Amino acid sequence: MILSEVSVRRPVFAAVISLLLVVFGILAWLNLPLREYPDVSRPQINVSTSYTGAAPEVVELRVTSPIEDRLSGIEGVRFIESTSARNLSRITITFDTSRSLDDAANDVREAVARAARNLPDDAATPLVSKSGLRGDMILYIIASSSKMNGVELTDYAERTLKERMERVDGVSAVSILGARDYVLRVELDPDRLNALNLTPTEVVNALKRENLELRGGELSGPQRTLQIQIPRSYNQIADFNSLVIRQAPGPLVRLSDVANIFTGPQDTDEMFRADGEEVIAIGIEPISTANPLTVIDAVKREVEQFRPFLPEGTDLRTSYDISVFIKSAISEVYSTLAIAAVLVVLVIWAFLGDFKATLIPAVTVPISLIAACTAVLAFGFSINLLTLLAMVLAVGLVVDDTIVVVENIHRHLNKGKPALLAAWDGIREVGFAVIATTLVLVATFVPIVFLPGTIGQFFREYALTLTAAVIFSSVVALTLGPVLSAKLLHRHDKNHPEAGLARLLHPVENFYGRFLKRALNHRWLAVVIIAGAFGGIYYSMQFLPRTLMPTEDRGSIFVLVKGQEGASAKSMQSAMLQVEKRIQPWLEANGVESTLLRTPGFGTNGDNSGFMILTLKPWDQRSVHASELVGDLRKQFGGIPDVNVVPILRSALRVGSRTPVQFVVGGGSYEQMEQWTEAIIAKAEENPGLTDLDIDFRRNQPQIRAEFDRERAAALGVSAQSLGATLELMLGGSTVTQFMERGRQYDVWVQGQSDQLSRIEQLSRLTVRSSTTGELIPLDNIVSFKTVGEAPRLPHYNRTRAITIEAGLAKGYTLGEAIDYLDKIAAEVLPPEAVIDYQGESLDYKTDSSSIEMVFLFALLVVFLVLAAQFESFVNPFIVMLTVPLGILGGLLGLLYMGEALTIYAQLALIMLIGLGAKNGILIVEFANQLRDRGESFDDAVIDASVRRLRPILMTALTTILGALPLIMASGAGAESRQAIGIVVFSGVTLVTFLTLIVTPLTYNLLARNAGSPERVSRELEAQMEQAKETD
User: Fold this and answer.
1) Residues 6 or more apart whose Cβ sits within 8 Å of residue 274
2) What sign does the CA torsion over 635, 640, 646, 649 have?
3) pLDDT (average), residues 531-539
4) Span 183-222+229-265+702-790: which CATH code?
5) 228-273, pLDDT tens digit by residue?
6) Is residue 118's pLDDT more than 60?
């Protein structure tokens, strides 16, 4: 061990190594960003294409499918989902995390450009936009005023507040929610238009023609040149009232003759309420790569700086601030880290009973963790919940190597050796074991880096941080450990070896030695124990529920509200108010701090949706978990007519507001797939674990179908384009031009009078002009209107027609159980041509679960090969690896006992147990080989090695166990993930430590009798070289 030998000879050199690690680690820490989790944004590209006047079936056939066909060949596409609605095609392409967002966007643009050549001539140019998959709003700023109405407050927010927020670094978009956009409304009267022989499009053309800001050229003189500008003439209501629509021949027709003109909100379809009050909200959406904590703090500072300049009676306050959860969770992890460090030091002191001896491994903790920050910064990582969790686990691991070193140097001191010589001999004796255990742990953690997809990106920082901490701890143990031992520990300290728990270990060691002597006569007992472990693993897996992420209490509950198909905005607002009123007593009784309510809901395509966010009291101010509150909420929402209310909890990986279960059925026509999904739902409703079952397809939305008589229209000189333009303008409205007021430009909104166009029979009042005769043609001459039930949206998934079954999970029911259940039902009821797939969190579960299993097998192989290289044998590594099933069994039994599910966190902890379990076996096998090399008999070497390594094994095991204990006891924000890892590590290390002390000596005695030492080839070579010299 060159590094250790140099350190013993040159102690200042060893001290400088540790000091440099600390200096660089502190510098790295000061420059590390702080965030909740690693950036797991997955590139996502949206393609939107407008096709005015086209039905969903036409949009699907002529726009969506041709574009999807071109997109299918792009590299790295994870899945494609699309919706074809009336007038609009919307396609979302989600890529693997390995793809660059910019590169993916460029590939999509090229594919769309090729597809655009085959699109209908009257379809708009496809619009390509990019976003990360974490495009959620992270903060809401609530604006209210006692002096301004909704229109005035919206105008102020748009003109002033939004612009200030958009300038903040890291802000991607600022949305005004509940807006009452200030416009000049021109509401056309169809009867007055007909009486004056005018059409709506002629009014629009007049507005565009007259209300212009023009340049009149320039006037050049001998001294100067003057620009001539013709400003807009229409900036007030009176101006627009007098705007001439038609001139001679005949009397002048002004805009006021055919329309009601006034300023007001563009529409009142959107409603946003905060804590029972209708308000304006400013939603902050960050750039996908930005640090949410930094963005939120910057936005809050901007608000506080601007607060003194707010108009009288105006107030700003924050709501749904995700930094509250992030900061609380990080604070909890820091507390856990401190508790774990204290417990580990207390364990060392309890065993050694001496402050100086305790100090040596204790200093390893801060040095290793601080040094690990250099690796975190070098890899471009951040300080987040996962890197901090890695450091918590590292507390129990980084002291292990130093404990082994210090304990062995103690043993040499007790033989009467001087301190310097004891440090020299002690480190030479265990140096190989220290390196072996370190490499095994590294070989265990590194395969996690190769996990694909979102999970791989999510846990890469965790694995590499843990790896760096363990590597640095090994460096400290091999350099600073023997130096401090030589300086602080002395041969004359007779009481030290017998201090603390060490006194109590003598009878334990004696008993253990006698036990092994008898047990070696029954060495096949090891086979029975290992076989029992495999049987226990199989049994445990049958009863252990599986899911992707634990159900986290993130301090908020999201509520999705869906009304009946075809429900109007007004009826949905009424329904949302009823929902709010229904749960108001429950909110007050269950510690809900604030409520946000919006209709229509976020990201939806219709008015029949709503959304609520319930922000709960801080975790230390309530005793009820959010999942229990969700169960209560379902009861509160039961019985509300005409709406379906779905409360959900979002996990760390869930993006948007979709339920965790997303089960896709494809392979047939929409009629067939609707029947198939209804059959699945009929059976699934019998399962109490599945809640809020629904599908994303409906064929019964009431719509008005306009059947155009093309032959009659052609005879009358009416085109389909003029018909569509008239209906769209009068019923939907359009921004036609702008006007100036208070130095700002506002829209002029033209629409038909809603009270005259609210029933089908009233549509006969509308007219279009004949291009051949110039006469007005009533629409009922060329169009018949009737009410039908149609599908408003036609969904695709991966380029094929598909319908998605959505469901929530009841408390205690896992995602794995839900998917297995639906898979089973689908196999029973679906015909052979049907195809099933998954979306969202369900897709992540299906793909990442199999990935974890492959990584587990890969870690086993890597650890075995690393051990084989170190031991120069395939037998000794096999002996060590036989401890792995013991640790796995312990971890699974711990989960079963605590009633926990096998989450991704628990599976990562099981991978860790490969290295943690192998450590103990390495200490015994490696020392037994050394004793055999010194001439001890095989049986004596096995027994002596096991007894002599009992103390370091127990000490390292206890430090790991107690280091994991604070994770089990964790509470507050984000505790669920920490508890899963803590349970597996605690129970797994406990069982593997106890059984390794039995199994490893017995399997070594059973298998290693003919296995040689790692140095056997070197000794044989040296002997042959000596023999050759003598011969020469």
Assistant:
1) 140, 142, 144, 281, 319, 594, 595, 596, 597
2) negative
3) 91
4) 3.30.2090.10
5) 766 666 777 888 888 888 876 778 888 899 999 988 888 778 889 9
6) yes
pLDDT attached to residue 562: 84
Which one-letter amino acid corresponds to residue 794?
A: L
d(CA 154, CA 151): 5
State whether the Cα torsion 73-76-78-81 is positive or negative.
negative
Q: CA-CA distance, 297 to 284, in Å (whole number)?
A: 12
Buried b (16+ CB within 10 A) or exposed e, 565-574: bbbebebbbb
Strand, helix or coil at 1009? coil
**What architecture is domain 555-649?**
2-Layer Sandwich (3.30)
> 652 phi and psi, to 5 degrees?
-65, -30
Lowest pLDDT segment from 178-182, 564-568, 728-732, 766-770: 564-568
Quote the Cα angle for 828-830-831, to 5°.
Answer: 115
> Cα separation of 751 and 190, whole Å?
10
pLDDT at 804: 92
pLDDT digits (tens, 9 = 90+) for 298-309: 999 999 998 998
Cα(918)–Cα(719) distance, integer angstroms: 80
Using DSSP's 3-state secondary structure scheme, residue 757 falls into coil
Quote the pLDDT of residue 11.
84
Same fold yes or no, 139-181+268-319 and 555-649: yes
Give the 3-state secondary structure of residue 602: coil
Rounded Cα–Cα distance for residues 449 and 956 (Å): 26
Q: Is the pLDDT of residue 497 over 50?
A: no
The predicted model scores a pTM of 0.79
Q: How many CB atoms lie within 10 A of CB 2?
A: 8
pLDDT band at 496 (very low <50, low <70, confident <90, very high): very low
Architecture in CATH of 2-37+325-492+504-548+846-1022: Up-down Bundle (1.20)
User: Residue 983 and residue 892: Cα distance in Å, rounded?
Assistant: 9
Mean pLDDT over all residues of the chain?
83
Spatial separation of the C-alpha atoms in residues 481 and 11, rounded to whole Å: 10
CA 153 to centroid of chain Cα atoms: 35
Q: What pLDDT score does 133 carry?
A: 46
Distance between CA atoms of 285 and 172, rounded to whole angstroms?
Answer: 6
**What single-letter amino acid sits at 408?**
N
Both tokens of 126, joined, read 């496809």
Half-sphere exposure for 438 (CA within 13 Å, toward CB): 22
Query: Rounded to an integer, what distance in angstroms lies between the CA atom of residue 872 and that of residue 621?
Result: 58
Per-domain residue ranges of the chain: 2-37+325-492+504-548+846-1022, 44-131, 139-181+268-319, 183-222+229-265+702-790, 555-649
Region for residue 840 given its phi and psi (left: phi exceeds 0; alpha: psi -120 to 50; beta: otherwise): left
Whether the pLDDT of residue 521 is over 70: the answer is yes
Q: Residues 621-653: pLDDT tens digits? A: 877 888 888 888 888 877 777 788 888 887 766
* Percent of the chain topping pLDDT 70: 93
CATH class for the domain made up of 44-131: alpha beta
* Other beta carbons within 10 Å of 135: 17
DSSP state of 760: G
CA angle 502, 504, 506 (to 5 degrees): 80
Both tokens of 107, joined, read 């590939």
CB-count burial class (<10 Å; 0-12, 13-18, 19+) for 95: buried
Both tokens assigned to 348: 């060392």
Q: Are 999 and 527 in contact (CB under 8 A)?
A: no
- Residue 653's nearest CA partner among 804, 559, 551, 544 is 551
Fold of 139-181+268-319: Alpha-Beta Plaits (3.30.70)
